[in-house]
Write a structure and sequence with these properties.
With 359 residues, the chain is of the alpha/beta class. The chain has helices at 10-24, 48-54, 70-87, 100-111, 131-142, 151-159, 173-181, 190-193, 209-212, 215-229, 240-246, 264-272, 282-291, 306-309, 320-331, 348-358; strands at 2-7, 32-37, 61-62, 92-96, 115-121, 145-148, 167-169, 201-205, 233-237, 256-259, 276-279, 295-297, 313-315. The protein has 16 helices and 13 strands.
Length: 359
Amino acid sequence: MTVTIIAGARPNFMKIAPLIREIQSRPEDNIHFRLVHTGQHYHENLSQVFFNELGIPQPDVNLGSGSGTQAEQTAKIMVEFEKELIANPSDLVIVVGDVNSTMACSIVAKKLNTRVAHVEAGIRSFDLSMPEEINRMVTDAITDYFFTTSAFANENLRKSGIPATQIFFVGNIMIDSLVWSSGKLKQPAVFKTQHLNPHNYFVATLHRPSNVDDSENLKRIFQVIEESAGDMKVIMPVHPRTAKMLSGINWTSDKIILIEPLGYLEFIYLISNSLGVITDSGGVQEETTYLGIPCVTLRRNTERPETVTQGTNELIGDDYPKLRESIIGIKSGKWKRGEIPELWDGKTAKRIVDILSRI
């Protein structure tokens, strides 16, 4: 069986790494893969460093899609991936997550009569203002094999008419990377330069348009975080989108420490030793839940509700008083104790490959 594995952006790399390692460890299954990097993320700290740290082999091809509007980037990926798949036919295209590469390559594959498997299928925020939600819906509308992370995702697919025989509850493959990396974490330089101590600082990550594209809104978020954190420092790896906005508001602070994006092993070290995390990232909600770290999410909804109902995550939207209250609550130790959701156990890639070997 020949499969084509798609990756294009930072959130994808932690999901393909365990899958590739599992396939490579089982030559008897006779599954041969071709790795396609769409080039959606091309910043060194958003792409190549993940290949190095997670043991991902160099891609067979990089489509070089680069940046652009939603339509421009999606179109570039589709045009280049069509050429790639025609030149290198596959029995199955495997897409992960919900970035533009996920949707674009799924559409191309199906139009070339190639089966599609979606890892992390069925998750929904039900917020159509999020580009990722469009990507999820379109991808799942044409997928053949649905690998899911939760009972919530299973139910979403069943309600949309997907036959149960096509839905495979395998768990969360992001957690496979967390488990694999547990003994390999690296202390980032900021730990020493800022004289940080474990559980005596916060981490913040912000990149969603609703939070960072309005300069006044972004400034207000920073003010509330700084005031509420008190004498604790807040370490913020800055996404390129956020960095662009920050350059226009002339923000300075000796409490909120802005740093370059980190590699995976450094970032997990940073959040696992923090007192709490303030974010708008979907993946960080999952990582903090598994690690048992308090998480405050600046969104009104989440496609990962199990991180709220079972985990350590709380949604606060743009409620600034709630943001202040949450940070103070974490500092005082008044935060819920979460539990790890079902099948978030580091064995998801094995379950996926078991299924692939039977297809």
